[in-house]
Amino acid sequence: MAELDPTGPLRRIVILGGGSAGWMSACYLAKSLPDVRVVVLAAPEIPRIGVGEATIPNLQSVFFDLLGLSEDDWMPHCNASFKMGIKFVNWATPGRGEARVRDAYYHVFGLLREHEGLPLSQYWTQRRADGEPTGTFDEDCYWEPALMEARRGPRFADGTSATAHAWHFDANLLADFLARHATTVLGVEHVEDRMTEALLDERGYITALRTAGGRDLEGDLFVDCSGFASLLINRTMGEPFLDMGDRLRCDRAVATPVPYDDADLEPYTSSIAMSAGWTWKVPLLGRFGTGYVYSADFQDPDDAAREFCDLWGLDPAEADLRHLRFRVGRNERAWVRNCVGIGLSSCFLEPLESTGLYFVYGALYLLVRHLTDRRFAPGLVDRFNAEVVRMFDDSRDFLQTHYCLSPRTDTAFWRSQQDLTLSDDVREKIATYRAGLPVNQPTVDVGTYYGNFEAELRNFWTNGSFYCVFAGLGIEPDGPMPVLAHRPEAVRSSADAFAAVAAERDRMLRDLPPTVEDVRRVQGRGDRTT
Ligand code: TRP
Predict the structure, then answer these.
(1) Helix-strand-coil percent breakdown of the chain, rounded to 5?
(2) pTM (2 decimals)?
(3) Which tens digits make up the pLDDT trace of 124-144?
(4) FRET label pair with 9: which of 236, 300, 434, 435, CA 20 to 30 Å apart?
(5) pLDDT of 102-113, one tens digit each?
(6) In the predicted model, is pLDDT for residue 471 greater than 70?
(7) Which residues are catalytic?
């Protein structure tokens, strides 16, 4: 670059990598910073059938709304289907039973309803203590579980939304779609080449990426989307990766797509506990993506493949199994000098709560709010890094609770969950729950929650999430919320609030179409019959 003035405005951003993180970054940054030149360095990829990506509702409000793309605009390009929550199967019951499904609970999107200023969870606990008839927590407090069981979708026949929902899709197709959008609509330049080295100045800032084809791609800011290879942030900048294998034990997966009779398309992700981990199931039209996430310390890959194939009735010798290894943890700092890692180069958590893409656009959202000029004010970089740490560690802690509160003791893997390193924050949340108090109850309603990422970031794992998982595992508070002893009238009238949930459920069961109808219509396969 001709001039050496390090204080001017940003002019060029170079992104290394063309996976979903690379193209999400390209779209997000080009749209947010229209006068900045965005260049993506990515070799053409060999296309593969994706094993299914699961997401959360703010994908639309934080990412696609910024691009001006509605569900109906983007869904047809990536074989997307709808998701209303996660069904956790066999996480509570020790031992291998006869039946495939021994226990199940739903983790439902959206906020828990309130009655007289307190969430329904507190009344549910009180009613149990009072010996009132109750069902399971999720079915009593939300109407969505019954809808998921009945395979209804989250939208009415006219396409309007009935409930907070997210999506399943093929992440490779999403990356292709975003690449086309970036290059044809947003003016992003795609350099189809490989990086051979990163050039640094005397301060240790990256000045350019040198390509195999002999080009030097100069830039002011470099975004590392090179995946687990982490070519810029770890290899070039030397930032240490903090391995968190002492907090989450799974470090491998074996995955494959499976043909699927989508007449019965499930509007939820399944997470099925196994002997040394759990298996995801992400239903799409025509197939579902699935993978067994397990710990190599407790099961070898052949045995894991056998257990996984047995679950779906596949022949391990015939199935197209992909074996993956991953590192769990994050870089000490996501942003170092003029290099920021986004996606797997920055951090990785197993996909248990569908946080993968959220970490990508969540970091991009934070990045554009902390960018200044080419000096990259250190205070802002530090603040961005602290926000990313909070976003990641908070989710890591929540994931841990699924394991350490599980009553399963049937294998060494499950027994070892009692020895996890836990943060003070998560210990306090577990203690709060046991004391009968709401955990992390946001003071906004559902609409405001998903429309306001700042509010969601502060209360990402809400009281409803904690209750779904903890109560779903059979862990109940030690007693009801103490203050309710002084409010007998509110406790009595809470029966009406539960009745309202049941009435809503019955109305929705009547009004909402099967999810497969809506998904086929969006995909332009509406006239297909089975
Ligand atoms: N705040 C997030 C949301 O409501 C929490 C979340 C992430 C979540 N993954 C989830 C909630 C899965 C329910 C199910 O989307």
Answers:
(1) 40, 20, 40
(2) 0.96
(3) 999 999 999 999 999 999 999
(4) 236
(5) 899 999 998 899
(6) yes
(7) 83
pLDDT one-digit tens code per residue, 477-509? 999 999 999 999 999 999 999 999 999 999 999
pLDDT tens string 41-61: 999 877 677 789 999 999 999
Provide the sign of the torsion angle of the four alpha carbons 329, 335, 337, 339, taken in this order. positive
Q: What is the mean pLDDT of residues 378-405?
A: 97
What is the C-alpha separation between 64 and 446, in angstroms, rounded? 19
Task: Measure the CA–CA gap between 329 and 344, rounded to whole angstroms.
Answer: 10
Of residues 184, 190, 194, the one with CA closest to residue 214: 194
Q: Which CATH code is given to the segment(s) 12-80+169-244+329-395? A: 3.50.50.60
User: CA-to-CA distance for 55 and 277, rounded, in angstroms?
Assistant: 20
Q: How far apart are CA 387 and CA 370, in angstroms?
A: 10
> Which of 63, 107, 271 to mutate to test ligand 1, by most ligand atoms within 8 A of the CB atom?
107
Which DSSP symbol is given to 60?
I
Q: Considering the chain, what percentage of its residues have pLDDT values greater than 90?
A: 88
Question: What pairing do the DSSP bridges indicate for beta strands 241-243 and 37-41?
Answer: unpaired
Distance 235 CA to ligand 1 centre (A): 33
pLDDT of residue 1: 46
161 annotated ligand-binding residue: no
Whether the Cβ atoms of residue 132 and residue 50 lie closer than 8 Å to each other: no
DSSP 334: S
Over range 278-292, report the average pLDDT. Answer: 97
Instruction: For 170-239, give the secondary structure using H, E and C.
Output: CHHHHHHHHHHHHHHCCCCEEECCCEEEEEECCCCCEEEEEECCCCEEECCEEEECCHHHCHHHHHHCCC
Q: How many CB atoms lie within 10 A of CB 238?
A: 9
How many whole angstroms from 44 Cα to the centroid of ligand 1? 33
Domain borders along the chain are: 12-80+169-244+329-395
Count of residues for the chain? 530
Pairing of strands 206-211, 195-200: antiparallel
